[in-house]
Structure formats: structure tokens, C-alpha cells
Amino acid sequence: MSDLDSQLKQRQKSSLLPLLIATLVTISVALIIIVYLFVVKGHAIKVMPLELQDSMVIEVQSGVGFVSDDVVYRFGGDVTIAVSAPTYFESQKLITDASASVVEVELKPKPGILNGSVAQAYGDSTLWVVNGRLLAKGAQIEEPLEAGSYQLSIENPYYEPVQQSLTVERDKAVMLAPELTAVDGKMTLDSNPQGADVYVDGVAKGKTPVSFSSLGGSFKVELHKAGFEPTVEQVDITNSNGDVKRQYNLKPQQAYLDITTSPAGGTLLIDGNQVEPGQISIDANAIHTVRYVKPGFYSFNSKVILPPKEIKTYPITLKPEQGKVSVKSNVEADVYINGNLAGKTPLTKTLPATEHEIKLVKQGYRSVVKKLIPSAKHTSSVDVTMLTEFDARRKEGRPLFISTLGMQMQLFNMTAFTMGSPANEIGRQRNEFAVRVDFTRPVWVGKHEVTQAQYHAFDNSVAKSQLPVSNISWIDAAKYCNWLSEQEALTPYYRINNDQLVGVNTQARGYRLLSEAEWEWLAKKAKRASPTKYVWGDSERLPREAGNFADQTLKSKQAFYFEDYKDGFTGKAPVGSFRADKAGLYDLAGNVSEWVFDVSSYVTPDLSVVHKDYTGPIQGGSRLAKGSNYQSGRMQSLRSALKIVSDGPSETIGFRIARYER
Fold it and tell me: Most exposed residue of 42, 307, 561, 662, measured as fewest CB within 10 angstroms of its CB?
């Protein structure tokens, strides 16, 4: 019974083995499919250029993966592959999860090698030129070239050029060993004097003149002749200069002067050529002139002749020289000689015969510098016309500072007349005294009233515009005039201390305000046969566009206005908005009244004399302004004789500038 059980059990085991194997195979296949679908990722490799697709080799260099039929399979992580092909450089590529399913790889072709050499002399001068581009210089070349066809030029100055075509293949060397053909040249040598022995690289070639053939190269040429110094030159025969011709001037055999000089620092001349002291080579058996000069000393002159190869010691000592200098000027000035004050003009000094700087200085004048070298033979003169800084600038043609501000001025030679008003003039005030005046100096007068923009350059708190500046005090107008004077190096007219007038310099040519007499002459007499009541004449009717007055636009704003007059402005007008008067001035009548120099007074001046350059009473009250303005609305307010008394700044008062011509 036991045997039967054993047999039954054996049969059962035998029937289970195939089933177990089948199950294991099924599980393995399933696992492979799962790995392939979910773990293994494939990337097709596309190589460029495309003709390498069949010959390329792909290898996995790092990471887990394998290659099959130009496809790289990787197991989850990144892999680095190497792609190669014959005659191309290997290329590496990193493949990651972000890589496309088709990965492009470009292979770069390997270059060919141009390997050449020349065995001839002067090989280091060889140029290897490919397609017109210098590739290398020297006897040998080993340079990479991309595959293709080329035109090679082998150039050497001592040989005929060689040109040939080249075909270069990838990863292959082109071997060249060209045989260069030497240039067939010629030398023609002559000398003055002739008959010199000629040697080329130590080989005798005869006496000059001589001519002989020579291959290309660089040669040492020597000429020797008794009584003359040897001549040596390196001569090249090249493919660009194969026929060499030389004419040599042989230098006579030399002797030597060993020259010392005292004092040092002078100029030493041998035969008119400047040389340095010491041992100096000169032609033997020839007469030479020796000259040594130094400012402040008498010059040395001599002649010398020496035999060949002699060395002669030659000391030179100079004696001091002095001369008289006379300095004059049109005005007395301080004289500085070489920076030291020497006195005042006129001045005479004895000075060493060296270059001296003579400087003339006077306050208010442009300094003048002259340079001279005195001589013992005669008196040297310096005669200077000194100019004020202002006049010096004018002479140089430099623009006036006021021109940069846009100011224009006109010159007037004022004549005698009677200022003020006659007793019967309608509207006359009791301080309009009839004073006889005359003028001694020409006067420059501003053609326009000073604008806000022009005043802004002095005081930037004032706005920029072409309206006349106003609402400034008399002292501020005077300070502005002084400022203009300083810009043009003119002596200021006003002396001002702590905003107070402490005096005037009547001789100064600096900018200033007009005097009342000058203002009235311009308004009444300039360019007129006889004085007039108004700027435009004696007519009691306002001429058209006569100026900026209180016209009909101010009807409801003030008591007095001109009902039949319209000037186009309710307030101030830009300067020059109206035509110029007979004298060529603008806005003398109207726009704003103008500060003048004088002060107000009701004390009668001396009417029995003619007052020269009259500036009114010495003492008095407030400052005066002249001329009507844009608020003037009655004819009596437009009279040129009217005096406007003001204690301070006013919106209706501005000013114009003036200055003396001389």
C-alpha cells in the first residue's frame, strides 16, 4: 500500500512542474512589459549631416541605458551618449526627461592639415598665403584647413613667388616641400670720388664704378679708399627690387676736436651745424668754422684745420655782455623786470644781454609784457601804449558784455540847450527850472529800457521777460550799473557802501544812469532843429503808436486816461514794441518812467551861468524819474520837463543805462 501511495505522489509532482514553469514565464513577460512601458524610455538619434546616419556610432558613456537601431533606451535617469563618425569629431549629448523623442546631434568635420617647408636660405622670411589670407610666416607651416579647394601662394622677398592649387580632405595632411627659385638680380655701385674698392660679404668685386649679377638676398656692401672713411651698408636684392643702384659719397678721413665750453648751456656750431660739446668728428685737412654763442655773452668765432686722426683739445670761454634798456609808456606805470619791480616809467636800466621780460602794470589798464635781448651796440627801447582793459577788449574785437545780454547803445554828442520848461507851459510845476546846460563828453545811451531778463542776470529773483524791469530802487539800479562795469573791466561810476551812495567818480567810464539834463536833451533836442515839448514834438494830440500810455482799456481802472488812444497794452509792454523816436531811442515816452541821477529840489539854481555836465543840486530830497509811463493819462504828464519824485521802488519806474565814451 505504501508503494502505491508513493507512486501517486510522484505522479502528482510531475504534473505540477510544467504548470509552475508556465506561471514563472508569464510573470517574467509581464514584468518586462511593465518595465518597458513604465521605466524604459527611448530616444531616436538624428545625426547631422544626414549622410552620416548610416555610419554613425552611438555609445552610452554614463547613466543606465542601451542603444539599439539608432535608438537610445534609458532606464529612468539621465544618460550621456557619444556620437561619432569617420573623419568627424565626436559629439556628446545629455539626454534627460525633458529631451524630445527625436534628439538631433550635429557632428563637426575634422580639418585637413597643410604641412609644408622650404629648405632654401632666408626661409624665415617666407609667407604662406591661402586664398589671399596670410596663414603663417616662416620656413615651416603646420596649419589646419577645412576640407575644400584652395589657392596657395608661397612668397619670399628673395625668391620668385610660387602659386599652386590645393585640395584638402578631412582628417588628412597635405605635404609640401616647394623648391624656391632665387631672384636673378644685379648691383650697380658707384662712389664720389670713384676708385673705391668694393667688397660684398667680404668678396672683392672691383673698384667703383662696378656692376655685377647677383641672386636675391641680403648682402653686406663695403667701400674702402685711402684718405676716406670706410662705407658699409646692408643691401637687399628682392623680387620687387632686383636691380639695385647705389651712389656713395665717401666721407673724408676724420680728425677730432675735444671742445669744452664756459659758461655751459650755449649753442655750439661747427660749420653752421649745431653740435654738443665733447669730442667732435670733423673732416681732416679741411678748414672748419667754430662758433659758440650764449645770450648775455660776446660770441666766440674761430677757424681750425687738422690732419687725419688728430685729437685737439679746444677750450672756449665767453665774456659777459650788457646793454642799456629804455622803457616808456603813455601813462605812468610800474615796470617789472623778470618779475621784480624796477621802478616807474620812464625808466632806463643796464641789463645783461640775455632775454628779459619787461612788464608794465597800472591799475585799471591792461598789463603789457614785452621780451627783449639788450645789446652793447645800442640802447634797446620799449615804448608802450597802455590801454584800459575795456579798450583792450574792444581792440581785440571781443563783444561787449552788454551785447551778450542783448543790449544796444547809441552814441550822442550832446549840445547846449535849456532844460526845464518855460513859465507859460501848461502843466508846468514850480521845480521845472529853466537851467542852461552844456556837455563836454560824448555819451553812450541804451536804446531800450533795461528788461527783466537783462536784470535777471544780476538778480535772479527777477523773472525773465522782455518787459522793462521796474519796482526796483534807485540804489539797485546804480548797483546794476556798477555790476555791468565790472563785467567789462570799466571803472565803476558809483561808490556804494552798505547800499548807500557815498560818492561818484565823474571821470569813470563805467555804466550809470542818465542825468536829468541828458535825459531831457534826448527827449527834447536830439535830432531836432529846436527843443520840443514832447518826445514826438509839440503837437497836443497823441500821434498814433507814440508809446504805451493810459489808453481806453484803463477806462474803469483809473481816473485819467486817453479815450481816443489805443496802444494794445493795459500794463507794461515788451521793450521796443513801439517805433523809435527821432533820436533812435525806444520807449523814452511811455511804458515805464526812468530813474535819473538827480535829486528833487525846489531851491532855484544859479540861472545866470551855463552849467557843464549838470547833475542837479548837490543836496535835496528824493530821487527823480523822468518820462511818462503806461499809467500816464493826461497830456501834462507826458511833458519831457516833468519831474517824477519817488521815495522808493515803483511798478511804473524802470531805467536805461548810459556811460561816457571817454
Answer: 662
